[in-house]
Write a structure and sequence with these properties.
With about 130 residues, the protein is an all-alpha fold. About 85% of the residues lie in helices and about 0% in strands. The protein has 5 helices and no strands. The protein is globular.
């Protein structure tokens, strides 16, 4: 077998699973431009929330929106990677559809985050005046 057994067998411990998850996060940050953009926007949302002293309920909505976008971006990356693995460099209508639908999931989650941002931050900013 060309692969080492520890790379193809099931994780034997929580620590091993956790390390693989951290490797995945590292890969997302290093290779996915849009994930990095989402990270920056999430950091700005958190900074603005801290400045505006959001309520716990507002923080819950912001956190939900942020992690919804992150999750959609992760799933989009998974779909793109699997499709690229399966079709290689050739064009395939089904592959295009899979990638487009996964990207649409990210778009929908980003629109949800914008809506939540408007509902949370606009009243908080207006309350300052």
């Amino acid at each position: 077998m060309g692969l080492r057994d520890n790379l193809v067998n099931k994780n034997k411990s929580f620590a091993q699973s956790f390390k693989h998850a951290l490797d995945g996060l590292k890969s997302l940050v290093l290779t996915e431009r849009n994930f990095r953009k989402h990270l920056v926007l999430a950091a700005l949302a958190v900074l603005l929330g801290a400045v505006l002293r959001l309520s716990i309920n507002a923080w819950l909505w912001v956190a939900l929106a942020v992690f919804f976008v992150f999750s959609a971006e992760v799933l989009n990356t998974v779909v793109e990677s699997i499709v690229d693995l399966l079709v290689g460099n050739r064009y395939d209508d089904a592959a295009k559809k899979a990638k487009d639908v996964a990207a649409a999931g990210v778009l929908l989650s980003a629109l949800f985050a914008v809506l939540i941002g408007c509902l949370v931050y606009i009243p908080a900013v207006l309350a300052l005046f």
